[in-house]
Amino acid sequence: MPSAINRGWPAAGGLAAGAFALLVSAAPAAAQRIENTVAVFAALDKVTAKISRLEVPLNQTATFGALKVTPRACYSRAPTEPPKTTTFVEVEETQLDGKEKRIFSGWMFADSPGLNAVEHPVFDVWLTDCAQPRTAAQRPQPAAPGTPGARPLPQQPEPEPFDPDQPRRRRVPR
Length: 174
Description:
This protein has a domain at 33-133. It contains one helix and seven strands, in the order αβββββββ. The protein has one helix spanning 4-26; strands at residues 33-45, 50-57, 62-64, 67-77, 86-94, 100-109, 123-133. Strands 1, 2, 3, 4, 5, 6 and 7 form a seven-stranded antiparallel beta sheet that branches. A hairpin with an 8-residue loop joins strand 4 and strand 5. The termini are far apart.
C-alpha cells in the first residue's frame, strides 16, 4: 500500500510543472532590436551655447569643435515598443599639439543622456536617435570560398551587445 508521502509526489510535480509553465508564458517577449546605419547626436558648445545636430554614418567620423565622434553601432526598437535607442561610440579630442586623445569609448543611451556622457570642459555630446534602418541587403556578406582573392574568415563568435537591462558582472580584485 502506498504511503501518504508517495501519493503527494505526483500532485506536487504537477503543481511545479504548472507553475513553471505559467512563469514561462508570463515572461515578456523580448523586443527585436533594429540595426541602423546612422547615429544622430546633439552637440553643445558650452562657450557659445550653440547646439548642433550631428548625423553620423556608422564607422565614419564627424568633427565638432575639437572633438571627433565615430559611432560603431546604433540600435533602436520598433515605434510600437518602448524606446531603447543605444549606440557604441568613440570620441577623440584633438589637442593643441595636434595629437588625438580618446576621451570616451562606450555605449550611450538616448533615454538616459547623463548616464554615459562625454565629459569635456567645453563640449557635450549625447545620443538623440538612430536613423536609416539597415536592411538584409545592406549587411556585409563574406566572399564565397571559391572566389579569387577570398580568404577564409576566422571562426570567432560575435561579442554580445551590451544590454542595459541585464545586471553587470564585476570582477572583484583578490
